[in-house]
């Protein structure tokens, strides 16, 4: 069946550009470097999920490719997702002081937009925080038994604050609240061991209501915790003392504080606008709803009102320090005010509730803690981040190599198309071979002298061959070499080693001539040297050899063709063939002294093995002596059969010579 489709190959010729090869080489070297760098960035890194409490630090991490050259590759830059803080959700800042609750979120840039249900936050600095209102609840009877065991009276502080945050949606204004109670409802029970009321014991029981207590790393928060606890204890004791002096004591009460817009001096007693409401045990209400000037109060109430005012100022300063507001009045940033505010810490009567962590005034502790400094604050969160991580070296090399090959192959295709287009635009015959285009004469053959050796005579002759001869015979020689790959078989018979080989270079010319002249080969006769060389070159020979010395082996232990000097030829067989379909066996001969060892039958088996392996062989033919033993020999050795010359479909014919 004919095949309509055939593969073809293109005829090529050099590009008509003088420096094209050099330019291509330089471009490929440069582009290989660029592609490798690019592919290392794109294919050499994976984004891994991680969690970070400092997304700014995470996203600011720079890798080697974070520069202007790779500016367009953003997917492999560290990134963190914003945290969503919902309404009524609690949070704290990175200074780990008070706990805050989010109450309202408003987009200042869009005044007509509704209140947002949550705040998208990504470690943005809190800005423009202001304390608009402080409330102190003085309670006695409504507190839990555990709280009363610690302190008869317990002030609970509440503050309303507003701040600004700049996020990806714009300028957001948030309303938050904060609370403080030195002895909250879940306080641990009071130890009856008077020696166990130290500040350390109270800290272990989480009485100071700071996320991180005794924070010596941040002096401002260390002093904030101290002034809050001492102010709380002072307000509790002064309230208890004042209440004992009354005929009808208080049950509970509320102080309200509004920062005055006219007073900026924090030491001024009129810094806050104050009002209060107290419930007496008899059911009456003692109130000062109007603006109240503490300085004008001449009764004993002045002391406990001043204590409440000090607690409110301590809370005001603590909130602003915790939120990172360094500007404006603040006890913690005014060393004189802090020194005055803490002057009686060492003499403070703390009763059952210990205060701290400071045990003395700022003047005595300042050399240890250092000056309080307020820095910017952020909401403390755990953020989901993605950071690039380099692949293992083996995976990185394979990924970059494959990507480089794709890019370079594409680059070569583009350059090849461009160069071909330019060449053809200048010369329409640029895509034809030079002789076909008439631009170059057909190549003339170059002559070479070839020294050959005549077979039997050993004489040497000089012949002339051309380059065309070499070109025309190269393919045939290669094909012949491939078809006629030599094969060897070895057999040990007694103490003798025999070899069957198809290597024609081992065939002894003298052996062939003497065999042809032997009476047993009645069909042959000795040949002239030229005829002998012809059959040696064109026939497929099977030689039988006696190994006179040990066989040589390769370094891997495989047998190789032995040196002819170690072989003695004792038999042969010749096949006239096209090496693919038809084989004619003739000139089978074994020296009489080596007959009876099964060598001829072994050689036939080798021939059958070799021909059976060929895919297109039609038949192996030969002419045998009309004798029963000869016919039986070839039937057993080769599986041959005698063709019926009278009734068969084919007849064997020959010409007489």
Structure summarized in a few sentences:
By secondary structure, the protein is α+β, with helices and mostly antiparallel strands.
What does this 3D model show about the protein?
The protein is α+β, with helices and mostly antiparallel strands and 657 residues long. It folds into 4 domains: 20-81 and 386-413, no CATH class; 83-383, no CATH class; 443-483, no CATH class; 484-551 and 562-638, Aminopeptidase (3-Layer(aba) Sandwich). It is 31% helix and 24% strand. The strands form 5 sheets. An 8-stranded antiparallel sheet has the order 4-5-9-8-7-10-11-12. The protein has a 6-stranded mixed sheet with strand order 16-17-18-19-20-21, sandwiched between helices. Helix 1 packs antiparallel against helix 9 and helix 14 (599-612) packs across helix 15. The longest helix has 34 residues, at 393-426. The chain is rod-shaped and about 160 Å long. The protein starts with 19 loop residues before the first helix and ends in a 19-residue tail after the last helix. InterPro entries: Acetyltransferase_Butenolide, Acyl_CoA_acyltransferase, GNAT_dom. The chain crosses the membrane at residues 20-45. Keywords: Membrane, Transferase, Transmembrane, Transmembrane helix.
């Amino acid at each position: 069946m004919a095949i309509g489709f055939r593969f073809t190959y293109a005829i090529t010729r050099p590009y008509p550009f003088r420096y094209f090869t050099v330019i291509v080489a330089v471009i490929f070297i440069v582009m290989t470097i660029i592609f490798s760098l690019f592919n290392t960035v794109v294919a050499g890194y994976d984004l891994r999920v991680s969690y970070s409490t400092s997304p700014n630090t995470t996203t600011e991490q720079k890798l080697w490719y974070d520069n202007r050259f790779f500016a367009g590759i953003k997917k492999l830059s560290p990134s963190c997702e914003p945290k969503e803080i919902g309404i009524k959700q609690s949070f704290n800042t990175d200074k780990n002081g008070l706990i805050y609750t989010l109450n309202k979120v408003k987009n200042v840039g869009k005044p007509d937009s509704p209140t947002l249900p949550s705040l998208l936050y990504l470690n943005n600095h809190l800005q423009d925080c202001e304390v608009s209102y402080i409330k102190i609840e003085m309670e006695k009877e409504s507190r839990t038994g555990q709280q009363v065991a610690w302190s008869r009276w317990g002030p609970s502080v509440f503050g309303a604050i507003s701040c600004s945050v700049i996020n990806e949606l714009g300028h957001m204004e948030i309303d938050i609240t904060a609370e403080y109670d030195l002895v909250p409802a879940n306080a641990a029970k009071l130890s009856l061991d008077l020696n166990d009321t130290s500040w350390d014991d109270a800290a272990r029981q989480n009485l100071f209501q700071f996320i991180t207590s005794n924070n010596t790393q941040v002096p401002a928060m260390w002093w904030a915790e101290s002034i809050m606890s001492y102010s709380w204890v002072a307000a509790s004791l002064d309230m208890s003392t004042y209440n004992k002096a009354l005929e009808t004591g208080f049950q509970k009460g509320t102080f309200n504080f509004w920062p005055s817009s006219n007073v900026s001096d924090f030491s001024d007693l009129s810094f806050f606008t104050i009002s209060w409401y107290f419930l007496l045990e008899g059911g009456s209400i003692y109130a000062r709803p109007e603006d109240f000037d503490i300085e004008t109060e001449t009764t004993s109430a002045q002391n406990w009102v001043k204590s409440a005012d000090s607690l409110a100022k301590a809370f005001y300063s603590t909130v602003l320090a915790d939120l990172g507001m360094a500007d404006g009045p603040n006890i913690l940033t005014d060393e004189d005010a802090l020194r005055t505010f803490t002057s009686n810490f060492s003499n403070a009567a703390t009763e059952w509730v210990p205060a701290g962590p400071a045990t003395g005034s700022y003047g005595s502790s300042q050399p240890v803690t250092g000056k309080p400094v307020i820095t910017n604050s952020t909401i403390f969160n755990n953020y989901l981040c993605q950071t690039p991580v380099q692949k293992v070296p083996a995976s990185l090399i394979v990924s970059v190599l494959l990507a480089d090959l794709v890019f370079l192959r594409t680059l070569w295709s583009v350059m090849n198309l461009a160069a071909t287009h330019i060449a053809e635009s200048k010369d329409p015959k640029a895509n034809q071979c030079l002789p076909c285009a008439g631009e170059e004469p057909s190549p003339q053959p170059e002559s070479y002298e070839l020294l050959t050796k005549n077979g039997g005579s050993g004489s040497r002759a000089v012949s002339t061959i051309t380059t065309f001869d070499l070109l025309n015979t190269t393919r045939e020689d290669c094909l012949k070499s491939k078809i006629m790959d030599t094969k060897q078989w070895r057999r040990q018979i007694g103490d003798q080693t025999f070899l069957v080989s198809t290597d024609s270079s081992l065939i002894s010319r003298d052996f062939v001539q003497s065999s042809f002249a032997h009476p047993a080969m009645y069909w042959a006769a000795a040949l002239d040297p030229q005829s002998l060389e012809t059959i040696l070159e064109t026939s497929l020979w099977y030689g039988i050899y006696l190994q006179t010395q040990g066989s040589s082996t390769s370094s891997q232990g495989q047998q190789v063709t032995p040196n002819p000097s170690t072989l003695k030829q004792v038999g042969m067989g010749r096949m006239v063939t096209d090496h693919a379909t038809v084989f004619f066996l003739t000139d089978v001969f074994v020296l009489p002294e080596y007959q009876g060892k099964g060598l001829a039958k072994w050689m036939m088996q080798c021939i059958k093995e070799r021909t059976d392996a060929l895919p297109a062989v039609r038949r192996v033919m030969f002419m045998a002596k009309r004798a029963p033993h000869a016919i039986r020999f070839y039937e057993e050795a080769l599986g041959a059969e005698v063709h019926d010359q009278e009734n068969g479909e084919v007849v064997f014919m020959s010409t007489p010579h």
